[in-house]
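Final report, Chapter 2: Outcomes

The project's central promise was a pipeline that accepts a single protein chain and returns its three-dimensional structure in a standardized token representation, suitable for archiving and comparison. That pipeline is now operational. To close this chapter, we reproduce one record exactly as it appears in the project archive, with the input sequence first and the structure output second.
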Amino acid sequence: MKTLILCTLGLTLLTGCSGLRTTETTYMAHAENFNFLFLQIPGGDSQERAMALMPQGATIDTLISTPDDMTSFLGVLNRIIGLDYTTINGRIEVTPNLSTTQSVGK
């Protein structure tokens, strides 16, 4: 019983996270929830959490999300027990730094 509780707690802590990975011109934001009997751990909508992590001036190229609604069979099944995740990939608009540009005519 103790092992089962520790495994459940470990799975819950590992799946409920969000993060952002960037390069100079691209980014990837993600957020996950562990669902158990309509309770979302760590809570909130994973799509809203992933959107909040997007850098300023970023555009969305792809958005992948699991069904998280009560109108489809997979959505209900996922809310009873499952994982809810959202991944957003896109480009960061780079503005030129005016302090590093040099004038050619001088």
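Archive annotation: The longest helix spans residues 2-15.
This record, like all others produced under the grant, will remain available to the consortium after the project formally closes.
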